[in-house]
Amino acid sequence: MKKEESGVINIQYPLPKTKKMPANLIQKYNVPGPRYTSYPTVPYWDDVVPTEEEWKEHVKNAFTVADASGEGISLYLHLPFCEKLCTYCGCNKRITINHKVEDPYITSLLREWNLYLELFGKKPLLKEVHLGGGTPTFFSPDNLKRLMEGLFAGSIVAPDAEMSFEGHPNNTTREHLQTLYELGFRRVSFGIQDFDPEVQRIINRIQPYKNVERVTREAREIGYKSINFDLIYGLPRQTMESVTNTIITANELKPDRIAFYSYAHVPWVSPGQRLYTETDLPRDEEKRALYEKGKKLFEEAGYVEIGMDHFALKTDKLYEASQNAQLHRNFMGYNSSGTRFMVGLGASSISDTWTAFGQNLKKVETYQKAVDTGHFPIFRGHLLSSEDLVLRQHILNLMCRFRTSWNSDDLKTLALTEAKTRLQELVEDQLIRLEEDSVQVLEAGKPFIRNICMTLDARLWRNKPNTQLFSSTI
Ligand SMILES: C[S@@+](CC[C@H](N)C(=O)[O-])C[C@H]1O[C@@H](n2cnc3c(N)ncnc32)[C@H](O)[C@@H]1O
């Protein structure tokens, strides 16, 4: 093995063979499908937007439950600014090099938080805080400090609160890491995506290995307990060799968690993806083989697949949560906090009261205008029906535990009875085991977890989309 200047290791070929999935199953199941960070999924929310009064009612009720049970709340903050466009990126972002945007945006976030605090009428218990983006480390350490101190002034931070942020290896400084650590952050997620210079060039994200090595080392020196790497398979120009090298390099740095995302090609949402051609993308069996290879290399390095696209070392809390059936999934992805009420602050953020979803205005200026004039900046949402609540729980169970079981009350939901019939086809394809009152995803079914959840997605089968809403499941 030889380490190049970029730090990427070149290994000798031929590589050991991985178990291949039957091509006919890949063709059959490679259809557009949701990633189920919510049910119903956003395109299937009812058209009726909750009024501000309805939204307040749901928030107040959710807070009463979270407060009385001691469950507490989760807080997500969307920090949308990035200095450069990464062309693959499917997230809501604003590209700017003008750092004067930081201060007024933080003021708006704190104003929005105050709208929630007024409704709660008492300090909420924060069990989870996540700074996502965009690029949270676009903001200076001082501004992040002002933001967090402002949020904490009106809250009680639980002693075991899970606090994490997304850092870009190119602009996360030691001062960022130190400041956020002193504020209570113990988890950091670095966006790596790929180490290959050609892939980095085409996705417009030149990120030398030395930057990744530095931030990882500094985070450890400062005392961070959990470091996550985001990697993506299916990016333009990726090959089996380049993905293998990327994973071996990542594994050498031994992050505690790895998110190995399937590239979501959604150019109708993220036009930056039109800056490369679709023929550059590994597809179908080729893309699936990249995932299979990655999974094998992660497992050989001691990682366990704890949920869709997610791997963790056995020493990480997420692994422990997956073993104790305490894994939870929400708009932030997988977590172990177990809170059901999530407040999302910032442009485009989604809040979840468990009985209702609400999404904030996406454009930074319109979001700020709404908040600065004292209004909740919700522009769309959904009030969950009793059927939604039952189906949501089972979809969540499948995403977090690869199994679910229902009782006679659940079966009063006719959609679930119908789903049982639909699941039969997956039994025939040997992807699941279906019992009278339960379904278990088999090892061969794990790569098709999105398809399996789709059989329980009554809103999707009742209203087949005319245009493509989701990325492909493979
Ligand atoms: C909101 S981004 C924040 C990353 C951070 N701004 C950075 O640049 O390091 C969070 C993660 O979403 C994932 N992601 C973004 N676009 C994606 C896409 N089109 N398909 C799959 N994953 C994607 C990436 O792995 C990324 O690290």
Structural features:
alpha/beta, 21 strands, single chain, 474 residues, nine-stranded mixed β-sheet, binds S-adenosylmethionine, three-stranded antiparallel β-sheet, disordered N terminus, globular, 21% strand
Offer a quick outline of the entry.
The protein has helices at residues 23-29, 52-69, 102-120, 141-153, 174-182, 197-202, 209-222, 240-252, 284-300, 317-323, 364-372, 386-401, 414-428, 449-454, 458-462; strands at residues 2-3, 9-10, 73-79, 81-82, 94-95, 125-133, 156-167, 187-193, 226-233, 257-262, 303-307, 310-313, 328-330, 333-335, 342-345, 350-352, 356-360, 378-383, 403-405, 432-434, 438-441. With 474 residues, the protein is of the alpha/beta class.
Number of strands: 21
Q: Largest sheet, order of strands side by side?
A: 11-12-10-9-8-7-6-3-15
Q: Can you list the ligands bound to this structure?
A: S-adenosylmethionine
Main sheet summary: 9 strands, mixed
Helix content: 25-40%
Low-confidence stretches: 1-19
Portion in beta strands: 15-25%
Question: Structural class of the secondary structure composition?
Answer: alpha/beta
User: Which word captures the global form?
Assistant: globular
- The number of distinct helices, counting runs of at least 4 residues, comes to 15
Radius of gyration (CA) equals 22 Å
How confident is the prediction overall: mean pLDDT? 91
Q: Terminal Cα separation, in Å?
A: 31 Å
